[in-house]
Recover the amino acids of this structure.
């Protein structure tokens, strides 16, 4: 399954709402989709699994939604530490695959 | 505190070999499936290989089949990947990651592998 993330780069200001898209080339089995955040020089960090479940310790301003082929990560009010690259991953179909990433930058 | 610490990265010539290790602590390593995920410089994430908790089941992405071998030592809480016949396109930061029901809950800091003449 090919995952296509859009936009490639999103320029927003702190306090604004961010909406990141992940579209799959075919339906993701059982909504087995995860989202990760990666900051420069750091490993990815799990944010969301099962399309909409927040990982331990993740603030509730992060939320995931979607099903089938269209998934969304929403950050309700951007904090300065949220500017990073975000990746989606599908693990419902073998082989698991990642999207190419969306860079969220400060406007 | 959960820790995954990779080691063994470095510069190797095309066709050469390298073995990466990942020392785990702070969680029950012996009951966790583990993966290697790589990231070429400036690019996105790519799943490389996965091994089941007991070590009996292993899977690889097509581009490394026959060249990479994943293994683990549960008595030492350590994950390995033996990389042979390395190619320039294998250049990447290699992360070990703990796999939980499909997603990666813990990640190491990564080990850089550079394949170049």
């Amino acid at each position: 399954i090919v995952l296509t993330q859009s936009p490639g780069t999103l320029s927003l200001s702190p306090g604004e709402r961010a909406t990141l898209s992940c579209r799959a080339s075919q339906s993701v089995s059982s909504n087995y989709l995860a989202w990760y955040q990666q900051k420069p020089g750091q490993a990815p960090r799990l944010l969301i699994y099962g399309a909409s479940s927040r990982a331990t310790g993740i603030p509730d301003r992060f939320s995931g939604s979607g099903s089938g082929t269209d998934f969304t990560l929403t950050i309700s009010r951007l904090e300065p530490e949220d500017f990073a690259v975000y990746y989606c991953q599908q693990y419902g179909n073998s082989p698991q695959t990642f999207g190419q990433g969306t860079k969220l930058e400060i406007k | 505190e959960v820790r995954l610490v990779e080691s063994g990265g470095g510069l190797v010539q095309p066709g050469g070999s390298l073995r990466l290790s990942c020392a785990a602590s702070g969680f029950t390593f012996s009951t966790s499936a583990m993966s290697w995920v790589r990231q070429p410089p400036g690019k996105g994430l790519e799943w490389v290989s996965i091994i089941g908790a007991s070590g009996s089941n292993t899977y690889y992405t097509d581009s490394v089949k026959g060249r990479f071998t994943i293994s683990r030592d549960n008595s030492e809480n350590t994950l390995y990947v033996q990389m042979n016949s390395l190619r320039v396109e294998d250049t990447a930061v290699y992360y070990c990651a703990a796999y939980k029901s499909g997603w990666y809950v813990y990640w190491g800091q990564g080990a850089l592998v550079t394949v170049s003449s």
User: Anything to note?
Assistant: Residues 50 and 84 of chain B are 17 Å apart (CA to CA). The longest strand of chain B covers residues 92-100. Chain B has a mean pLDDT of 97.
